Amino acid sequence: MTQETKFQVGVIGAGTCTPEEAQAAYIVGQEIARRGAVLVCGGLGGVMEAACQGSKDAGGTTVGIVPTSRKEDANPYVDIAIVTNMGHARNAIVVSSSDILIAVAGEYGTLCEIALGLKMGKTIVSLEGGWDIEGVVTAKSPGLAVDTAFKILLQ
After folding, report:
1. Domains parsed from the chain with CATH numbers
2. pTM for this entry
3. What's the CA angle centered on 109, arms 10 and 146, to 5 degrees?
4. Which of 3, 17, 45, 63 has its CA 20 to 30 A from that of 85?
5. Residues 6+ apart with CB under 8 A from 124
6. In whole angstroms, what is the distance from residue 7 CA to residue 37 CA?
7. Using an 8 Å Cβ cutoff, are 26 and 54 in contact?
8. What band does 112 get if pLDDT is binned at 50, 70 and 90?
9. What is the DSSP string of 35-71?
């Protein structure tokens, strides 16, 4: 990537989450923005909304790949809403549009994105206590997850 090109970091996780998961996602979003990268996500609530809010609060740019046909369905912290009307199939677009992915907990939709990411040769960093899957890098904290992602991106 050239100096003018920003990394696009995907944040994946469930549309509903615990307060602890939301806090972790918020920190991930902040740290992504502080490094000048664009945050890409599924555009809805839960982990996605918390990460977008963290990014926005730190001056970042957010892109939401929305599963519906209405950009208004995106969470209020999404700068650019890409509507797909594809439901869960939009997960492939989230993964394809990301240079690297950070998983914050999640459910089957997140597992789908992890599987697609691994199949597409993307690196996935998961917060400890989340996904323990062969090929997924684990990080002990939100800050370390983003540090790890950027070390990999800058190699």
Report:
1. 14-146 (3.40.50.450)
2. 0.96
3. 25
4. 17
5. 100, 101, 102, 103, 114, 117, 118, 131, 135, 136, 137
6. 5
7. yes
8. very high
9. TTPEEEE--SSTHHHHHHHHHHHTT-EEEEEESSS-G
Give the type of residue at 26: Y
State mean pLDDT over 127-151. Answer: 95
**What 3-state DSSP class applies to 103?**
strand
Is residue 39 exposed (0-12), middle (13-18) or buried (19+ Cβ within 10 Å)? buried
Three-class SS state of 94: helix
Encoded tokens for 121: 């040769």
Q: Are strands 8-12 and 100-103 parallel, antiparallel or unpaired?
A: parallel
Which H or E element spans position 151?
helix 142-153
Main-chain dihedrals φ then ψ at residue 142, nearest 5 degrees: -60, -45
| pLDDT digits 0-9 by tens, 4-36 | 458 999 999 999 999 999 999 999 999 999 999
